[in-house]
């Protein structure tokens, strides 16, 4: 009896076009990435968002390598008429859409922050020009938050449908299907955390007096100080700009404090953007790999 190409010493009755009974090291590696990311996602003291995105890149890099294995490709071809393959392709599109939404939100916020920084640096237009730019920033953030909340609502609906059927499957194929389902679920979960992070705390719809709003913002700042700095840059800037808009004073201390927060936000956004762009390219490569397997 022929030995398995991925395990020359193994002798079993598995079909030649199925994955070997002993998990391939890449499957074990993918499962280890999933375990780590799942632990990060549920931890009460979660890792910084960039760390999670970097972990996602490692996971999808592992999946991409797994898809290059001949026996993995044969298994997918064998299952090409099954619904889970269509769900896999649909899921890859969903991940690309959510990743694009996150990138757009980051870019939009970063550009608005940069415009506000520019006005602060020049300080030529006085309070009127500064007030106009502050209002523009607040409006742009409201638009971004609304778009994010819509995406988060869509994500909730998607997560409920994120299941692949594994009944009556070979053990090896069932394991592959289960792992790919977990990859999509964990990726969606981290994208959800990222979108919530970019959005910042939800604003109440009721109209607040200037004093109650300032009090609320100061309380938010105190709570933020107890959390990780990496996870509060957007919320800190939102609170600072709101407070600045209410007080509308161009005292040097206030201006410098706001400018420093905006600079940190821009740097932080740039880092997240780079991580997302790299992840986006990996997601595209995985989708192309699956399509090529099915079309060849």
UniProtKB/TrEMBL annotation:
<dbReference type="GO" id="GO:0048367">
    <property type="term" value="P:shoot system development"/>
</dbReference>
<protein>
    <submittedName>
        <fullName>Uncharacterized protein</fullName>
    </submittedName>
</protein>
<feature type="coiled-coil region">
    <location>
        <begin position="248"/>
        <end position="282"/>
    </location>
</feature>
<dbReference type="InterPro" id="IPR004320">
    <property type="entry name" value="BPS1_pln"/>
</dbReference>
<keyword id="KW-0175">Coiled coil</keyword>
<feature type="region of interest" description="Disordered">
    <location>
        <begin position="1"/>
        <end position="25"/>
    </location>
</feature>
<dbReference type="GO" id="GO:0048364">
    <property type="term" value="P:root development"/>
</dbReference>
<dbReference type="Pfam" id="PF03087">
    <property type="entry name" value="BPS1"/>
</dbReference>
């Amino acid at each position: 009896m022929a030995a398995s190409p991925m395990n020359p010493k193994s002798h079993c009755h598995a079909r030649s076009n199925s994955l070997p009974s002993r998990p391939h090291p890449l499957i074990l590696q993918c499962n280890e990435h999933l375990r780590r990311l799942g632990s990060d996602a549920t931890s009460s003291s979660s890792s910084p968002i960039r760390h999670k995105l970097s972990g996602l890149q490692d996971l999808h890099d592992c999946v991409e390598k797994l898809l290059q294995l001949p026996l993995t490709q044969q298994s997918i071809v064998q299952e090409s008429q099954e619904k889970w393959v269509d769900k896999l392709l649909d899921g890859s599109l969903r991940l690309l859409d959510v990743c694009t939404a996150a990138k757009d939100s980051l870019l939009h916020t970063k550009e608005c922050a940069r415009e506000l920084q520019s006005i602060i640096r020049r300080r030529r237009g006085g309070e009127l020009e500064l007030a106009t730019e502050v209002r523009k920033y607040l409006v742009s953030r409201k638009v971004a938050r609304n778009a994010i909340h819509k995406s988060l609502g869509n994500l909730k609906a998607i997560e409920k449908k994120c299941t692949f059927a594994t009944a009556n499957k070979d053990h090896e194929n069932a394991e592959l299907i289960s792992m790919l389902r977990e990859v999509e679920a964990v990726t969606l979960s981290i994208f959800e955390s990222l979108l919530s992070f970019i959005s910042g705390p939800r604003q109440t719809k009721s109209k607040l007096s200037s004093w109650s709003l300032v009090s609320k913002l100061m309380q938010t700042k105190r709570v933020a100080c107890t959390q990780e700095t990496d996870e509060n840059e957007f919320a800190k800037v939102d609170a600072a700009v709101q407070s600045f808009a209410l007080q509308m004073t161009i005292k040097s201390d206030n201006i410098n404090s706001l400018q420093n927060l905006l600079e940190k936000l821009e740097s932080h956004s740039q880092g997240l953007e780079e991580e997302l762009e790299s992840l986006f390219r990996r997601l595209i490569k995985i989708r192309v790999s699956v399509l090529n397997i099915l079309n060849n």
